[in-house]
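Summary for the steering committee. One of the milestones for this cycle was to obtain a three-dimensional model of the protein with NAP bound, which we needed before selecting residues for the alanine scan. The sequence and ligand used are listed below.
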Amino acid sequence: MTVSLEMVAVVAMARNRVIGDGAGLIWHLPADLKRVKSLTMGCPLIMGRRTWDSIGRALPGRASVVMTRDASWAAEGALRAGDMDAALEHSRDWIAATDSARPEIILFGGGEIYAAGMPLCNRIEATIVDISPDGGPNAALFPALAASEWDHEVLEEAEPEGDVPGYRYERFTRKKPVTV
Ligand SMILES: NC(=O)c1ccc[n+]([C@@H]2O[C@H](COP(=O)([O-])OP(=O)(O)OC[C@H]3O[C@@H](n4cnc5c(N)ncnc54)[C@H](OP(=O)(O)O)[C@@H]3O)[C@@H](O)[C@H]2O)c1
């Protein structure tokens, strides 16, 4: 039986689309980390090698599919993919082989991988952080979206609290769905 799969991008970005400084995140939003966990549990995560380095380990209950052009790269708990087709193949195979898997492939970042996978995404679960950081010389960005291609809804808003900036959970849904 062929199960139809959907690719979903999960991202936290600032108002100016900055997602990190190239080595890690610029903010700490504990509630958002919990949300990312629940959005991604039971799914393969397609991520770039730099994002893998910034996390430093495989996230439990999910597959870590790591894109790198280095054919000799290997890390415990990671499935190496030399291009997006290989990443999709690993993801499909992992879903098919895993009882608790959900039929969603998560585009997990960072900037290069969001840009590469965005044409395949049907949905974006975004946390928009209410800051506009510089991000430094290696800043990573989420790609600009063509507003005409996406429906958009705001799901929830959180006010700033202490050191934690305000943020919103937003969902973008592609008007003309694509399959992976
Ligand atoms: N806020 C968020 O939601 C979020 C989510 C994820 C990451 N981030 C942040 O994003 C930043 C990292 O993003 P980034 O853009 O610098 O790096 P990245 O996208 O994580 O990884 C880039 C690496 O992926 C590999 N790669 C890229 N395109 C490829 C392709 N077509 N085929 C095969 N391999 C490919 C290359 O690895 P090799 O050099 O090994 O060949 C490249 O150096 C960090 O600051 C991280 O914290 C933020």
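Key point for the committee: The mean pLDDT is 96.
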